[in-house]
Specification:
Number of strands: 54
Helix content: 10-25%
Strand content: 35-45%
Number of helices: 9
Oligomer: single chain
Radius of gyration: 29 Å
Structural class: mainly beta
Shape: globular
Largest sheet: 7 strands, antiparallel
Distance between the termini: 84 Å
């Protein structure tokens, strides 16, 4: 009897675990919208890489034949954690079954879920899903743009660790969903839109669509929510185009998603007004009201989005712009019916030209953002829509800021929205400095660095400080405001986290420019010890750079001076740091993150050697003086290198249009050339370079002319090089290879690989197509 008790308990435990798994809902961690179309495969394996948003302890996949006219047989399905290229991580492969069978026949017009797969799926990870098509199969259900390489191999090799790749594709086939189970997950948000939601013009294989960036922000904040991307390039709100309209696909693509609780409606109406200039704002508003009603009737929260600017795109019109502005005004109005708003327009437009993208966010076609623009859209999403964050508030850099001393305003505490800071919209462009990217931009103020911008009524930022001695301190605020000199730009105050006003209202004077800086002061009385000070914006309209706390009546040490000053150099520099305060010591940092104090940083004892791009910060201090403001400067070190010639055919070309072809031609420099049969403005071909040494280069480009060729621009890593628009059209049937055309100058701060992209911007009036060719890229 004693031996049967543990066995009995073990059976109960196993049964309990099984029941728990059965009771957990499935939640989407990845998804794409099925579309009509595809390719033909014959006895081939397809391996598709997807990027998860949320993790779980079990998984299932969904296969769709929604647009198929006949049943399709899919067999030998596998799932594993992706490795590099077409490979999978060893030891992670799992067989996927359907009703216990190793193959499944998906009927015409049907979707099929797999059995539960006992596999741990990490969040923010790439997962490889492979299957074999044993028959000649005409795929009629796919997702047109994957922005992820899909691998095709001959034969049944789904379970192989690596594939002998026969071809690559730029679409997803049959696969539409990956779901997970986890007790931590509270639901999923569907991002519902068109090409901007789909991630058009984002970097290939980088997972830089804005829903990916949103998933990363949710994960960093400890909010367990899946993100399911249901963006379709070309989709419209009102009219069926290359797929069903948003109104007609809402039930399947939003309501039909597992454990969905929220929907973000994004960019469809841009295509409505772009393709039909007679569409009015009233028609768009009527359409979105129907979506809001559908969402609410199915128990979903509807998060509306303003439409991004698109002036400069081929189908922009003044009537379409009027409709866009009317639609945006409705979405932002309190009576819209939206449960929340993502102001994508404000997050991405150029403040000086609000009908256009900020140049730093423009992919080049003036319709789609680049990677930085997609990050800005994700940053504009208020995470409090999805629940309470589990992060704790901590000082930026891990150490409380010292008072007396200088606090850089961009170094507000860690902890996220609603805990360490609160903003009403997120518009920052200095996203590489902090992962939240909130309201930050590069400043041209003395010392350089980052400033805190886009102030707004009710916004606040917390700073953990350590006050050496209780007393009254004079606070010097470095501010700038575009409002005319002599007028008031707004006001703010310092307070405790409980709301006790420490400074009274501090009025900001107009300085005449967002980067025209002045200093204003106020007094505060602080107890000794560690505490939190909150900067509260009463009326917005100004930028902050830093705030310096000095004991009232104490002189301040003079800020250090760098010699030579910051800038771009072609050789390593030995930088001297001096202060005119007699006897002052100096500490400095070079990591670009840590602010020097009396106890943090390297004690200066002689010139600082700088041989690579470095952000240098320094502070001066002396007994009887308040610590000086921090002096900052960025030194960019470039080197001159020899000529580098890259043959386009050897650079793993990928594209967004039709098939890419490479051909030999003795007349071509290097003997080969590459072509993509592009079909429209905005489509592209891109190339992956080998590692290129740091330095400043002049980029030249050789192409093959023809009567079918397009006009295009050139970008490297998402940034346009120069302003040259290359016209590859030439009359006559004979192709030629003109001399290299100079595109512009490009600087690489460090050695590394890069992505070169040619994007169709138009065509010569006599050209018959939008094809793009490439022969060589020359850096010298």
């Amino acid at each position: 009897m004693k031996k049967t008790i543990p066995l009995f308990l073990g059976l109960l435990l196993a049964q309990a675990l099984t029941l728990q798994a059965q009771s957990l809902p499935w939640t989407g961690t990845w998804g794409v919208t099925p579309q009509s179309g595809g390719n033909t495969f014959n006895k081939q394996t397809i391996r598709q890489i997807v990027y998860t948003s949320a993790g779980g302890s079990a998984a299932r996949i969904r296969l769709s034949n929604l647009f198929g006219s006949q049943s399709v047989l899919i067999s030998d399905v596998h799932i594993a954690l992706a490795g590099t290229g077409s490979s999978i991580q060893s030891g992670t492969d799992h067989v996927v079954t359907f009703g216990g069978a190793a193959s499944v026949t998906v009927g015409a017009g049907a979707d099929v879920n797999s059995d539960s797969i006992p596999m741990t799926i990490p969040s923010l990870s790439e997962v490889a899903i492979s299957f074999y098509l044993p028959n000649s199969t005409n795929v009629q259900t796919y997702h047109q743009f994957s922005f992820q390489t899909v691998y095709v191999a001959n034969g049944d090799v789904s379970g192989n660790t690596s594939l002998s790749v026969a071809s690559t594709q730029g679409s997803y086939f049959f696969l539409t969903n990956l779901d997970v189970q986890s007790p931590a997950l509270t639901g999923a948000v569907v991002t519902f839109g068109a090409s901007i939601t789909d991630g058009y013009a984002s970097t290939q294989n980088a997972n830089h669509r804005w829903p990916n960036f949103l998933a990363q922000r949710l994960s960093a904040a400890g909010i367990d929510v899946g993100v399911i991307n249901q963006g379709v390039s070309g989709n419209q709100l009102l009219s069926n185009n290359n797929t069903l309209s948003a109104l007609n696909r809402f039930q399947h693509d939003v309501v039909g998603q597992p454990n969905v609780r929220w929907v973000i409606f994004s960019d469809d109406p841009i295509n409505d007004v772009g393709n039909n200039h007679s569409i009015t704002g009233a028609q768009l508003i009527s359409g979105v009201k129907q979506l809001i009603s559908q969402a609410h009737s199915n128990g979903l929260k509807f998060l509306g989005s303003t439409l991004t600017p698109f002036k400069g795109a081929g189908y922009w019109s003044s009537a379409g712009e009027t409709a866009r502005e009317q639609y945006n005004a409705f979405v932002l109005s309190p009576s819209s019916g939206c449960d929340g708003v993502i102001d994508q327009d404000t997050a991405t437009h150029d403040p000086n030209n609000p009908t256009q993208f900020l140049p730093a966010f423009d992919s080049g076609d003036h319709l789609h953002p680049n990677d930085a623009g997609y990050q800005a859209i994700a940053n504009a999403v208020n995470l409090s829509f999805f629940g309470t964050q589990t992060q704790t508030e901590t000082p930026f850099g891990g150490t409380p800021a010292a008072i007396p001393g200088t606090i850089q305003n961009e170094n507000y505490d860690l902890g996220g929205e609603g805990l360490a800071y609160h903003v009403t919209s997120i518009n920052g462009t200095a996203n590489s400095y902090r992962s939240d990217g909130v309201d930050l931009e590069t400043t041209s103020d003395t010392g350089g660095g980052i400033d805190l911008g886009w102030s707004g009524s009710g916004q606040w930022f917390k700073y953990t400080v350590n006050v050496t001695t209780a007393g009254t301190y004079t606070v010097s605020f470095r501010v700038a405001a575009i409002t005319a000199v002599g007028s008031s730009a707004g006001s703010f105050h310092l307070q405790t986290p409980s709301g006790t006003n420490l400074s009274g209202a501090i009025n900001v004077p107009g300085t005449g420019g967002w980067q025209t800086w002045t200093t204003i002061t106020a007094n505060v009385t602080l107890p000794a010890g560690q505490q939190i000070i909150e900067l509260f914006e009463d009326i917005g309209g100004y930028n902050f750079n830093f705030m310096t706390f000095a004991s009232a009546g104490s002189p301040m040490a003079i800020a250090p001076v760098f010699s030579p000053g910051s800038g771009t150099y072609t050789t390593a520099q030995n930088v001297s740091i001096t202060s005119t305060t007699s006897g002052a010591s100096i500490r400095y940092t070079t990591d670009g993150k840590t602010t020097p104090t009396e106890t943090v940083g390297t004690l200066y004892s002689g010139p600082v050697s700088i041989s690579s791009t470095t952000n240098l910060e320094a502070i001066a201090y002396e007994t009887g003086f308040t610590d000086s403001p921090v002096t900052s400067g960025t030194y960019t070190i470039t080197t001159t290198t020899g000529k580098i010639t890259l043959q386009a055919s050897s650079l793993s070309p990928t594209g967004s249009g039709q098939a890419i072809s490479s051909a030999a031609d003795a007349a071509a420099p290097g003997g080969t050339w590459v072509k993509i049969a592009s079909t429209a403005v905005g489509q592209w071909i891109q190339f992956a370079t080998p590692s290129i040494p740091a330095g400043t280069y002049s980029l030249s480009f050789i192409y093959r002319t023809n009567t079918t060729r397009a006009q295009h621009n050139v970008t490297i890593d998402g940034t346009q090089v120069g302003t040259t628009i290359v016209d590859q059209y030439a009359p006559g049937a004979t192709a030629t290879y003109p001399p290299a055309v100079t595109i512009g100058s490009v600087t690489f701060g460090t050695a590394g690989t890069h992505t070169i992209r040619l994007t169709a911007t138009g065509k010569n009036a006599a050209s018959t197509d939008f094809q793009i060719s490439a022969v060589q890229f020359i850096f010298q």
